[in-house]
Design goal:
Distance between the termini: 16 Å
Number of domains: 1
Helix content: 40-55%
Shape: globular
CATH class: Alpha Beta
Number of strands: 6
Strand order of the largest sheet: 3-2-1-4-5-6
Mean pLDDT: 95
Structural class: alpha/beta
Number of helices: 7
Radius of gyration: 13 Å
Order of helices and strands: EHHHEHHEHEHEE
CATH architecture: 3-Layer(aba) Sandwich
Low-confidence stretches: none
């Protein structure tokens, strides 16, 4: 199963002290370049972590306007789940019937 990680989801290990990568072992993990660019500004340490965990950074070719829309377009075009804790992104993805993962009870990655 493919999972595309958004910016705030990649910050979970630092914000909540939860090892999301342990919970996602065995899955193909992706993120888009724009999320990494945002992450560099917010938490450069998270960029090093995602690289060490083998998250594939892709430059997607959709002409979406927002980073959230680019994440959604990538997921839709690649039959991927979206991993996020952003309620707005969750809502947009669910309206397009894209499966999502989020953090529940401050420590468990679960499907919503």
């Amino acid at each position: 199963m493919k999972i595309v990680l958004d910016t705030n989801f990649m910050n979970i290990p630092f914000n909540y002290k939860v090892d999301i990568f342990e919970q996602l072992l065995g899955f193909e993990l992706y993120t888009i370049k724009e999320c990494v660019d945002e992450l560099k500004k917010v938490n450069p340490g998270a960029v090093k972590l995602i690289r060490s965990k083998g998250v594939k950074v892709v430059e997607q070719t959709f002409k979406s306007r927002t980073v959230d829309d680019k994440v959604i377009d990538f997921a839709a075009g690649n039959s991927a789940y979206i991993a996020t804790v952003d309620k707005k992104l969750l809502s947009k993805a669910q309206k397009r019937n894209i499966p999502c993962l989020t953090l529940r009870q401050g420590r468990y990655v679960m499907r919503v």
